[in-house]
């Protein structure tokens, strides 16, 4: 299985090879076209990312101990930005997603060419994915404790989230994952 660092290096090489702003936007649109179809029933308020200029939907689940990310947007560029995170994080273990450094996209080609609102959206997307993965990991632990089966997920210190920027993100809204019960709680 490949890791986040390998994926990051491949993406950085692809971005560095782009010849200009037009090439970047073409690249992002092609990335967005490669996202799997996002089911219409997933386009709910619970899946909608707050703080994005365009509508962006995010759905997360754990499948076989790996993170699965589904995403969509009504903007081609936002869809492409989301596709970068799907490409980097989907199929990884939760701990690897949570530990991943995500500021590198701002420091390279994207940071120089994206307008501020898109750059902010890029960071918002990564934060929301990490928050959603943390929630999924916590839910998996709770389910394991209730069922009496040991969790295959390693322990995670929650202190940084309780005091850091992900806590602020959590206070401002909710990510969507494949848990209908949580969606109902969100609607209350």
Automatic annotation (TrEMBL):
Residue ranges, annotated region (Disordered): 145-188
Superkingdom assignment: Bacteria
Domain Fe-S metabolism associated: 13-130
Biased amino acid composition, Basic and acidic residues: 176-188
UniProt xrefs under SUPFAM superfamilies: SufE/NifU (SSF82649)
Any Pfam family: SufE
Annotated Low complexity bias: 146-162
Similarity comment text for this entry: Belongs to the SufE family.
Protein name (record): SufE family protein
Provenance organism: Akkermansia massiliensis
């Amino acid at each position: 299985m490949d890791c986040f660092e390998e994926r990051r290096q491949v993406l950085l090489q692809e971005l560095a090879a782009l010849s200009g702003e037009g090439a970047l936007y073409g690249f992002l649109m092609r990335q967005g076209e490669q996202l799997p179809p996002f089911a219409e029933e997933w386009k709910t308020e619970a899946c909608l990312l707050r703080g994005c200029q365009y509508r962006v939907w995010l759905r997360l689940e754990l499948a076989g101990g790996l993170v699965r990310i589904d995403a969509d947007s009504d903007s081609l560029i936002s869809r492409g930005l989301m596709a970068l995170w799907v490409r980097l994080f989907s199929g990884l273990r939760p701990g690897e997603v949570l530990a991943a450094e995500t500021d590198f996209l701002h420091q390279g080609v994207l940071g120089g060419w994206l307008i501020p609102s898109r750059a902010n959206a890029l960071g918002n997307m990564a934060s929301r994915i990490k928050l959603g993965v943390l929630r999924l990991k916590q839910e998996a632990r709770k389910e394991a404790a209730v069922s009496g089966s040991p969790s295959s997920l390693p322990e995670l210190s929650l202190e940084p989230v309780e005091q850091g920027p992900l806590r602020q993100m959590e206070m401002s809204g909710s990510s969507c994952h494949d848990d209908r019960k949580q969606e109902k709680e969100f609607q209350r």
